[in-house]
């Protein structure tokens, strides 16, 4: 082996890999939230025990028994009188946040591939992570308002209701994106001199 070849190892900032994994985790959680019922039946916001059961997601609702679903799939649907269409339209912030978190994740790949940190524009990642956090937080607030009201209305009609995994997945994604945004804004990813 020729010792005259001086291969330098790729230097990645110490905090880059955890931030990348957190951003990727938030993206995956938001992706599952976006592709909820009726696309993936195990991901739903609430399950109402109407005579045959119904689960609600971003794109509509489906009966538990594998029966009919809302058609066509769309953001903005109603299940009268418990769920009103104007609030379900606000769920559009989930796909927007998913796309922004994907771009934030992808913006870190050049650093993982060996581009020197001093040549990287961290402001792109910072802005994308901030926008992703804001849209996920807005979606979470609307989701709490929508499904909290729906649960109250179902229970007032003496219908059993339970929450599904999506409220918790959405909360986790928002918290992760908040941590990533704070980390990015505080300069944790910037190279140290």
Can you describe what's shown?
The structure is a single chain. With 193 residues, the protein is of the alpha+beta class. It has a single domain, classed as Butyryl-CoA Dehydrogenase, subunit A, domain 3 (Up-down Bundle), CATH 1.20.140. The protein is 51% helix and 6% strand. It contains 6 helices and 4 strands; from the N terminus they run αβββααααβα. It has a 4-stranded antiparallel sheet with strand order 3-2-1-4, with helices on one face. The longest helix is centred in the last third of the chain and has 35 residues, at 122-156. The protein is elongated and about 60 Å long. It starts with 15 loop residues before the first helix and ends in an 8-residue tail after the last helix.
Return the average pLDDT rounded to an integer. Answer: 85
* Unreliable stretches covering 5 or more consecutive residues: none
Main β-sheet: number of strands, strand sense, barrel status? 4 strands, antiparallel
The percent of residues in helical segments reads 40-55%
CATH architecture descriptor text: Up-down Bundle
């Amino acid at each position: 082996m020729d010792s005259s070849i001086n291969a330098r190892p790729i230097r990645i900032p110490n905090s880059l890999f955890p931030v990348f994994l957190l951003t990727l985790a938030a993206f995956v959680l938001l992706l599952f939230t976006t592709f909820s019922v009726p696309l993936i039946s195990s991901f739903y916001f609430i399950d109402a025990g109407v005579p045959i059961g119904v689960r609600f997601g971003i794109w509509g609702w489906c009966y538990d028994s594998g029966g009919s679903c809302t058609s066509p799939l769309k953001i903005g649907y109603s299940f009268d009188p418990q769920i009103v269409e104007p609030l379900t339209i606000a769920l559009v912030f989930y796909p927007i946040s998913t796309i922004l978190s994907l771009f934030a994740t992808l913006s870190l790949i050049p650093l993982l591939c060996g581009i020197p940190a001093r040549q990287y524009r961290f402001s792109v990642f910072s802005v994308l992570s901030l926008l992703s956090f804001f849209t996920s937080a807005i979606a979470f607030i609307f989701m709490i308002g929508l499904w909290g009201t729906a649960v109250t209305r179902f229970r007032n009609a003496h219908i059993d209701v339970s929450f599904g995994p999506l409220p918790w997945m959405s909360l986790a994604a928002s918290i992760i994106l908040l941590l990533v945004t704070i980390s990015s804004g505080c300069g944790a990813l910037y190279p140290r001199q």
